[in-house]
């Protein structure tokens, strides 16, 4: 099935790749993106997506779950193993477990069909803002360190005590940064959603638990007995290390 494809070249505009096999939805999303100043291109399968990714780079990928051939979950897992490009999943599945699976595989956000184009735009802008596509306030961008770890908000890089770069999704980085900027404070799930989604509509509250779990897997000495990110029963999470500006 061929999908109408349009690309526009605008200076300083974000490049968005949509992988969606429904022509009506694809055309609607692409038109919305173009009308709002984005560079946008649509393709209908993993095979066609790979061709585009070899030819050009993208700032964000919108990925449908139900695709011919390789499904969106599998594609998401593979993409996340290769890069940290923000990923939004499009799903017609209403069950929370399906959406949580996407987040666990490395997606940064999801939106359920049918969706409002304004909501999709809000989530795209939020993710791009969080991934430093646009400049952030300089006073909040000092590098921070804890327990030998270093997190750089401008470069959006995390290095372990041995200086090794640790790959994180946009959402994982934002969760860790929120903790580092609020050490010794109990943060509720609602506060974490607010701190990591810049006020835009975000995933369900439960998704925060998924992202926290993934951050723990990457920074905790013992994931089974977390010492850096403590769960505070009926309250939220507490980041225990002393954090210093570099």
TrEMBL record:
SMART domains to which the protein is assigned, alphabetical: REC, Trans_reg_C
Matching entries from CDD domains are given as: REC_OmpR, trans_reg_C
At which residues is 4-aspartylphosphate found?
64
| Response regulatory domain sequence ranges | 15-128
Entry coiled-coil feature ranges: none
- Regions recorded as binding DNA: 141-241
Ranges of residues in domain OmpR/PhoB-type:
141-241
Q: Which InterPro entries match?
A: CheY-like_superfamily, OmpR/PhoB-type_DNA-bd, Sig_transdc_resp-reg_C-effctor, Sig_transdc_resp-reg_receiver, WalR-like, WH-like_DNA-bd_sf
Report keywords, A-Z: DNA-binding, Phosphoprotein, Transcription, Transcription regulation, Two-component regulatory system
Question: Which Pfam families does the UniProt entry name for this protein?
Answer: Response_reg, Trans_reg_C
PANTHER family for the chain: DNA-BINDING DUAL TRANSCRIPTIONAL REGULATOR OMPR, REGULATOR OF RPOS
Name the UniProt record assigns to this protein: Two-component system OmpR family response regulator
- Biological source species: Phyllobacterium ifriqiyense
